[in-house]
Design a protein that fits this description.
It contains eleven helices and no strands.
Length: about 210
């Protein structure tokens, strides 16, 4: 039998899918503890009993959101890997930063939720988490920094985490950084890409593009 998440993915027009969409946005904006099922139901335009009928309790819905986001991230990374495969490392980074930065700015709740998970030190939020080690290994292998996805050293993983964390911080921190810089959103996104490339490409390539 399909899970509620599988049903939602199979039928994007269904009530389950609609609830999931709003839940991703609200959990991404307010975190697990700052979001209530009543808030989600109100945004969807349904009563609370309908939400519970489709998704169970808040923890069930939150864990489905995490699984859903993990699936989206995994698929995006696969798409990027196909594009950059075989290119020099500098070019791989250049293209990857462009694609992933655009993707995360289009889905800011992903970065928000990841950072919420990093820094939440209070009540239990469920058994599931973002597949950070798995994603890190995938990225390291795609960048040519390891010989296989199961053979990634802690040093390489830390370098990849530094790249991804800098993206998440710029995306999640847009509301703080952009007013401080007094620029529009498109300019901010372009500057984020330029800054990420300025920091990371020389660090990985020794200043060149290879």
């Amino acid at each position: 039998m399909d899970t509620p998440l599988e049903k939602a993915r199979k039928d994007p027009e269904s009530m389950k899918a609609k609830i999931l969409t709003f839940a991703r946005r609200l959990f991404g904006e307010y975190g697990f503890h700052g979001t209530t099922t009543r808030m989600i139901a109100r945004e969807v335009g349904i009563d609370i009993s309908t939400l519970h009928y489709h998704w169970g309790n808040k923890k069930d819905l939150y864990e489905s959101v995490i699984i859903d986001i993990n699936g989206d991230l995994r698929q995006k990374l696969r798409e990027v890997e196909k594009i950059i495969h075989g290119l020099p490392l500098g070019k791989r980074l250049d293209i990857s930063i462009d694609i992933m930065t655009d993707y995360l700015f289009d889905h800011p709740g992903i970065s928000n939720l990841i950072l919420f998970r990093y820094f939440a030190k209070n009540r239990y939020e469920g058994n599931l988490d973002f597949s950070v080690p798995e994603f890190t290994a995938d990225i390291a292998y795609s960048m040519g920094l390891s010989t296989g996805k199961k053979d990634v050293s802690p040093e390489v993983m830390m370098k990849v985490i530094a790249v991804m964390n800098s993206m998440h911080n710029f995306v999640s921190g847009e509301g703080f950084f952009r007013p401080m810089l007094k620029i529009d959103r498109q300019t901010y996104i372009l500057l984020v890409k330029e800054t990420l490339k300025f920091i990371h490409i020389p660090a990985f390539t020794g200043g060149g593009n290879g």
